[in-house]
Amino acid sequence: MQRISRKKxxxxxxxxxxxxxxxxxxxxxxxxxxxxxxxxxxAGTVQLYHATESGVEPDSQRYQLMQxxxxxxxxxxxxxQMTISDKLSIxxxxxxxxxxxxxxxxxxxxxxxxxxxxxxxxxxxxxxxLESGDVVMVMSNEEGEEIETATYTDATFYYxxx
Length: 162
Description:
By secondary structure, this protein is α+β, with helices and mostly antiparallel strands. 35% of the residues lie in helices and 23% in strands. The protein has 4 helices and 8 strands. The chain has helices at residues 2-24, 36-42, 71-81, 113-128, and strands at 45-46, 49-51, 56-58, 63-64, 88-95, 101-107, 135-140, 146-152. The strands form 3 sheets. The protein has a 4-stranded mixed β-sheet with strand order 5-6-7-8, covered by helices on one side. A two-stranded antiparallel sheet has the order 1-4. Strands 2-3 form a two-stranded antiparallel sheet.
């Protein structure tokens, strides 16, 4: 009688442990699921952002880079594809060994502070898609006099977009 009881206890213990492992496996498995976003990013695309009158909006579709493995070529493509104010022009850029990007920007007369801020946000957010380092903007007026130099990270303008 005691032998049967021990056998039942062992079976019960095995079933109980199996049940615990089964229930533990039913939890959140998001670590195994790859998102559409990561698949799209691996396909060599970036999200471009554009300044509007009141904010920064993403393009309706992601932009397919011609040479996604080449940071300089990708940066050039983004600069050409971005829609920024006609009161700004990106004249040249430099990329250092840490993948930090320095943009030399001419600011034309008549741009408002808000318009300038929103355009900076659109530029930085677009370049952020390249997985570069920090973005340094050297702002100059039309006479070539430096107005401002500032460094922006990927989180600087995070709240300006959806």
